[in-house]
Structures are given as C-alpha cells and as structure tokens.
Specification:
With about 475 residues, the protein is an alpha/beta fold. Helix content is about 55%, strand content about 10%. The protein is built from 21 helices and 12 strands. A 7-stranded mixed beta sheet has the order 3-2-1-4-5-6-7, sandwiched between helices. A 3-stranded antiparallel beta sheet has the order 10-11-12. A hairpin with a 6-residue loop joins β10 and β11 (about 465). α9 (about 210-220) packs antiparallel against α10 (about 230-240). It is globular. The structure holds nicotinamide 8-bromo-adenine dinucleotide phosphate. Nicotinamide 8-bromo-adenine dinucleotide phosphate binds near residues 9, 12, 76 and 101. Nicotinamide 8-bromo-adenine dinucleotide phosphate (NBP) binds next to α1, α4 and β6.
C-alpha cells in the first residue's frame, strides 16, 4: 500500500501543503532533511489524514506509488538543486518531480530539460496564498509536460481553493510557464500595492484625511469595482491603532518597503522581452527609493525645493476622493494590461500557449491579488482570446474612458502638490502613449540616424534609409545594397 504523492521539505509551506493533501483523502509521504520536522508534523497533525513519514530519502521514494509524484518544497535556489540531485538517482522514467517553491522560471527551464533527458517529468509550479493558502487552499500554477498534468492535476485541483465551483489550478504550459506566470502575478501585486499606497498618500496629504477616515474610504471602495483582498486589508491596516503609542499604526511603521525579489525578476524579464511594464517597474523603483535611507536623510537635512501650497480646499477638494478612486481603477487596469502583455510575450517567445483568461480565473482565489476585477479580465479574454491589449476590451476601454478626466485631474493635482505618484502618472503616460497616432519616436530615430547611422524607415515607402548627414543631406536607401 503505497502513498499517492510525497512532499519533501516540511517548513511552513511544505508542512501545510502536506496537511492539505492529507485532509483531501490522499495518502501523502512526508520527508524533510532534518527529521525533527517530520516527527513534529506527525505528532501535531498526524491525525488529520494518511501520512507516511520517512527519515531518509530512500525510504521516502520507496513509499511512493508509481509513477512517483514528489513535491519539493524547499528554499528556492541551490537547495532545490541539491534535493533534485538527491532524488533523481532513486527515481525512474515517468516519475514526476514538482518544484512548488518560488523558483526563477529560467531555473525551472534548466531543471525541466535536465530531467527530461532522464525520461522524468519536472513540474515547476507557482503556489500562491502563503502559509494559510497552502493549508486551506492555494492558487496553483503548474508548468511542465501535459502528460505530467494528467497524473498530477486531479490531486492539485483537489487541494486548490475554489471560486464559484472552479478550482484555482490549471495547466499553465510547458517548462517554465508556471513559475513565469507566478512571477508576473507577484509583479502585478507590487504594482497594485503601489497604486493603493499612492491613493492613500494623495488623500491623506491632499485632503488631510486621517488614517481612520481613510479606512472608511477604502471600505467603501471595497464594495464597488475595486473590491479586492488588497483594498480590504488596506482598510484594516489603516484602521489599526498602535497599542504602544495610541498613534495610527501606519505612522509608527518605518517607511522603507522591502522586497524579496520577484518584482525585480518580473521587471528584469520584461526588459529582456521588451515589454513596457511601467506599473510594476515604478513599484519596484518606489520601494528602492523608500529604502534609500541615507540619501533620503541627506535630502531631509539639506531640504530640496517643493511647492508652497497646502492641502486642497474648496472646489479643488470637491469630489477628490472619488477622483482618486477612478484614477486608482484606471491605473490598475493599465498595470494588469501590462502584466498580461508580459505573459503574452513570454508565451510567444517560449512557445507556451498560455491561456490568459484561465490565468485570471485561477488568480481569483488564494492569491494576494484576488479581486472581482479578475472576472472582467477572464470575460475579456473569453470574448477575444487574441485581444491585443486589455485596454481594447469594450468593458475596460469604457471604464478607462469614464475615469480619464478624474485620472488626469488627480495626476495634475499630485504634480501641483508635490506628491509623488509614479504609479498613477506612469500608467497615464502609458495610456496616452498607446493612444497617440504619432509618437516622438520618429525624432529618436532621426537622432539615431544622425549620430550612429542607425537608419530609419519612411512613412511613405518601403525600405530602410540613411541621410548623409555629414555630406549633402541626400537620402540613401540602405536595405538593397547587395542587390
Ligand atoms: P524555506 O524557504 O524557509 O526553506 C526551508 C526548507 O528547505 C526546510 O525544509 C529545509 O530543510 C529545506 N532545505 C534547505 Br533551506 N536546504 C536544503 C538542502 N540543501 N537539502 C534539503 N532541504 C533543504 O521554507 P518555506 O518558507 O516553507 O518555503 C518553501 C518554498 O516555498 C520556498 O521556495 C519559498 O520561496 C516558497 N514560499 C512560497 C510562499 C507562497 O506564498 N507561495 C510563501 C512562503 C514561501 P531543514 O528543515 O532540514 O533545514
């Protein structure tokens, strides 16, 4: 009588995932490098289901039914490679190794290729929802071979969170697709949080609202189009009072945002793919600026000039709360549109065939970015699977059209008041850039041709051209020199 699946790596995530699997009626083999974690799991949660503990990798592998399904849930990076190297000599062709940690998708591609050589399947899967999600139902984004999903999908779908009866787990695509999509999900999370933070800042500085008053504003927003986990918890954080000082909690927290790296990975990948994810990039940079403590202190000490006016008053203040709500929504549409563009570009580059509507579907539960909004994205891709931008979907196009006056007012006000809104401003600049029939990129091309003979294309004729800038300024066609 062998186990259906195994989990190795029983720190918080692996332990909760194993418990989730056991609670759903699967026999789960459990293993960890240091045995104590195995013993603790059995002692504390052993009655929750059918656990098969092992103290050695050999026993662990031997306790699994074939084809063996092994979930690796250890620290991302070298530890994952170490565990894979330990496991593979004990496995056979057709066995499936699942990396459920937060691996970089390029590492997943490398590992998948290496295991494929041995006839084994390697599944890099995004798992979202943190500790609690792992136990009660995460969103799961598995990549790898279709064949491996046949064997693995039913178990994963059984432990994933469900929204409207649909499990938040689906086959994403080959090799690194699952980890890639999880990475972009995290990048979007960065952008979303930055936009929320800007909305808070604008209303607090611009209108002088207190954190408690702002908690009410976010609560109200959470009953409309902005309904989401992040907006809900923003209200909770803003309402929280520090027990030690009686001050608003946000005022006692050091204002330096940290990052573990997935936002940075997303932007690095976007740069490689040439996709403008300005919303995510601005969010990563805003965290970097907040963390530049020495520089900020030096600027505080010297003081740099800013606008002299105070908070908004009279007509300027009128309707500003709702204007910020609309600006937040429009900026959020842009940030998500950009994130989905990045998934599209990678899917094309790597031949993944990612179904974007399904990604929106499986992010509706478990994920930090879970939101009502994702249903709209799903509907947009259902209506047109080849949609060139989310901004072109009728619903989003009209939502942004309705919001645009408010959006422009908010960005202009932020500039007047000297309140930094890199998320709101860059989203608007992106939107306006996309709208323009002619961009000043023509001048950039002209400059490149002058200083570097980089050539340009004409609006009225085929071919690439160069102006003899240091000669008689005549134009030469460059693309059929050897004809
Ligand atoms: P950690 O990331 O803290 O890793 C600890 C685990 O890795 C322990 O089981 C440890 O074994 C094992 N390990 C290490 Br470290 N080096 C090893 C090696 N050379 N050989 C074998 N095992 C080794 O655990 P976690 O916080 O549970 O996270 C697990 C994964 O899930 C990570 O990739 C993390 O990024 C990801 N994660 C995801 C979320 C999410 O929301 N999706 C949240 C948190 C973490 P030991 O007990 O013997 O030291």
């Amino acid at each position: 009588d062998l186990a259906d699946i195994g989990v190795t790596g029983l720190a918080v995530m692996g332990r909760n995932l194993a418990r989730n699997i056991a609670r759903h009626g699967h026999a789960v083999a459990v293993h960890n490098r240091s045995s104590q974690r195995v013993d603790d799991l059995i002692a504390e949660n052993g009655d929750e289901g059918d656990f098969r503990p092992s103290h050695s990798v050999e026993d662990f592998v031997a306790s699994l039914a074939k084809p063996r399904r092994v979930i690796v849930m250890v620290k991302a990076g070298p530890a994952t490679d170490a565990v894979i190297d330990e496991l593979t000599p004990l496995l056979e062709e057709g066995d499936i190794v699942v990396d459920a940690g937060n691996a970089h998708f390029e590492d997943t591609r490398r590992r998948e290729a290496a295991l494929k050589e041995k006839g084994m399947h390697f599944v890099g899967t995004g798992v979202s929802g943190g500790e609690e999600g792992a136990l009660l139902g995460p969103s799961i984004m598995p990549g790898g071979s279709r064949e491996s999903y046949e064997a693995l999908g039913p178990i994963l779908e059984s432990i994933a969170v469900e929204v409207d009866g649909t499990p938040c787990c689906t086959y994403v695509g080959p090799d690194g697709a699952g980890h890639f999509v999880k990475m972009v999900h995290n990048g979007i999370e960065y952008a979303d949080m930055q936009l929320i933070a800007e909305a808070y800042d604008l209303l607090r500085q611009g209108l002088g609202l207190s954190p408690a008053e702002l908690a009410d504003v976010f609560d109200e927003w959470n009953s409309g189009d902005l309904e989401s986990f992040l907006v809900e918890i923003t209200a909770r954080v803003l309402r929280h009072t520090d027990a030690r000082t009686g001050r608003p909690f946000v005022d006692v927290v050091v204002d330096e945002a940290e990052q573990k790296g997935t936002g940075r990975w997303t932007v690095q990948s976007a740069l490689d793919l040439g996709v403008p994810v300005s919303g995510i990039a601005e969010a990563v940079f805003a965290r970097a600026l907040s963390g530049a403590a020495d520089q900020r202190a030096a600027v505080q000490a010297k003081g740099l000039a800013g606008p002299t006016g105070g908070a908004l008053e009279g007509a300027d203040a009128e309707g500003f709360v709702d204007a910020v709500r609309q600006a937040l929504y429009a900026s959020k549409v842009v940030a998500y549109a950009q994130g989905f563009d990045q998934i599209t570009a990678a899917s094309e580059q790597y031949g993944w065939g990612v179904d974007r509507g399904m990604m929106a579907t499986i992010w509706r539960g478990g994920c930090i970015i879970r939101a009502r909004f994702l249903d709209r994205i799903k509907q947009a891709y259902d209506a047109d699977p080849h949609l060139a931008s989310l901004l072109l979907d009728d619903y989003f196009a009209s939502a942004v059209a309705d919001a645009q006056d408010a959006w422009r007012r908010v960005v202009a006000t932020a500039v007047h008041l000297g309140i930094p809104t890199p998320g709101f401003s860059s989203a608007l600049a992106y939107y306006d850039g996309l709208r323009r029939d002619r961009l000043p990129a023509s001048l950039v091309q002209g400059l490149r041709d002058l200083f570097g003979a980089h050539t340009y294309r004409r609006v009225d004729a085929e071919g690439t051209y160069h102006v003899l800038w240091s000669g008689d300024h005549s134009e030469e066609r460059q693309d059929h020199i050897d004809q």
